[in-house]
Amino acid sequence: MVSHWAPSTHHGIDAVRRNRLLRALPKLEANLATELLQGVELRYGQTLQEAGEPLRYVYFPADALLSATIAMDDGSSVEYGSIGSDGVFGSRFMASLRAPGRTLCQVAGEAFRVRPGVLFEHLDQMPVLHERMYRYSQYLYITTAQLVACNCLHTVTQRCARWLLSTRDALGREEFELTQEFLATMLGVRRASVTGAIGHLVRCGAIKYRRGCVTITRSRSLERAACECYHVLVENRRLVIAS
Ligand SMILES: [Zn+2]
């Protein structure tokens, strides 16, 4: 369910530029985007789109972080993509399809949203935004392909380290809230496996973990523990989004 919205108290042009994709827009496009977008506070764990639903809103995160997941009949699930302040959830080419899985808020914060019909109606007037959204769809596609391989071929500890580094990069900070249960859901593994992986990363000095909060204390150690996929994802982001 999409509910409990708390409209933001500020959603001027400076506010929407907290999303890096919107920050790249020329002034005329930024002004139009500001008129169309509504600021909202997203809660941790809040579902933004259920599997099988049409796209209700397009979201541009400011400091919130979103997770796209696929759920199975037995209740297990796995993340196939995350969307932070350099991206957007929702695209024109996916808008006519039912969602393949659930998208939820992984880290609470602010985002800007707009009804897809309203945005796409104006997209021809916003060629830079159109291009940026297209590129971001490409980035999500190649990220998903990488994660399919990662989830099949790499250990839970490697994937855990990769996930922590990617989340750190998306948020721009070393410390963030995280429960082992949530991480198990994102990685599609049992909680006991995540407990073992977290324990290993704590013992090698890469992270500190207190109940519900992880701090990356030695980035190099965490990168050594991660699989190659982390650097592939960083390079993909640099080539597709930042270029
Ligand atoms: Zn991997």
**Beta-strand residue fraction:** 15-25%
Q: Name the CATH homologous superfamily of the largest domain.
A: Jelly Rolls
Q: Which regions contain 5 or more consecutive residues with pLDDT less than 50?
A: 1-10
Q: What's the rounded overall pLDDT mean? A: 90
Instruction: State the domain count.
Output: 2
Distance between the termini: 36 Å
Largest sheet: 4 strands, antiparallel
SSE run: EHHHEEEEEEEHHHEHHEEHH
What gross morphology would you assign? globular
| Proportion of residues in helical segments | 40-55%
The largest sheet has its strands arranged as 1-2-8-4
Radius of gyration: 18 Å
Query: What's the CATH C level of the largest domain?
Result: Mainly Beta
User: Got a strand count?
Assistant: 11
CATH architecture of the largest domain: Sandwich
Query: Helix- and strand-based class?
Result: alpha+beta
Report on the structure:
This protein has 243 residues and is α+β, with helices and mostly antiparallel strands. α6 (156-171) crosses α9 (219-225) and α7 crosses α8 (191-203). The longest helix has 27 residues, at 127-153. The strands form 3 sheets. The protein has a 4-stranded antiparallel sheet. The chain has 10 helices and 11 strands. The protein folds into 2 domains: 6-150, Jelly Rolls; 155-226, Arc Repressor Mutant, subunit A (Orthogonal Bundle). Bound molecules: zinc ion. Zinc ion (ZN) binds at residues 150, 154, 158-159, 162, 227, 229. Zinc ion binds at residues 150, 154, 158-159, 162, 227, 229.
